[in-house]
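WARN  no MSA supplied for this record, continuing single-sequence
INFO  ligand: TZP
INFO  echoing inputs
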Amino acid sequence: MEGMYLVTDQAACIHHPLETVVAKAVDAGVSCVQLREKTIDTRSFLDRALALKNILAPARVPLIINDRLDIALAAGAHGVHIGQSDMPYAHARKLLGPKAIIGLSVETWEDVVEAQDLDVDYIGVSPVFSTPTKTDTKEPWELEGLERIKGYSRHPLVAIGGLNQGNIAPVIQAGARSIAVVSAICSAPDPFAATRALCACFQ
Ligand code: TZP
Ligand code: MG
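INFO  complex generated
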């Protein structure tokens, strides 16, 4: 997990359909896409996962499914992202197998300590900053929290929450291997240009 990581949100796609946003973000260089759907039915979720897989496969960009292992398995996605109240890591690994990418959100220091014993592929530091996109979060980690996690955790860090072109340089500096965004790409009038600019922050 490295570089820009797009997390989708239907409601944040205000200028273009979600599939268009994903296609443009992939063309512009995102290295991972997570399909995150909180409100659609299972059939629609699967259809959307299959559609995104078709967009991502030629570019060899992995598709990660938020929370739903059944959708990940049915769609042949590369992995799942689980939160602290989703399927526990050990069960997710047993169901998906050793090759699956499994990311886990950490919201408290206890979560970070517990993750140390899990062979997750990355931890999602959530949220780094407060964000209107997701309001039911714990306290933001801020840069200090991110640095503390970096100094302790053996896992690659994916930073998420309130991140945009204007504030990611110090987040990368603090040790985030990857930067995950929703609105900075989904809500951009030009998702290609927005992704390009975000990717350039890694240079
Ligand atoms: N998890 C923690 S914050 C967040 C998620 C899904 C939303 C991030 O959205 P944005 O628009 O990039 O701040
Ligand atoms: Mg979840």
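The domain at 3-200 is CATH 3.20.20.70 (TIM Barrel).
INFO  checksum written, moving to next record
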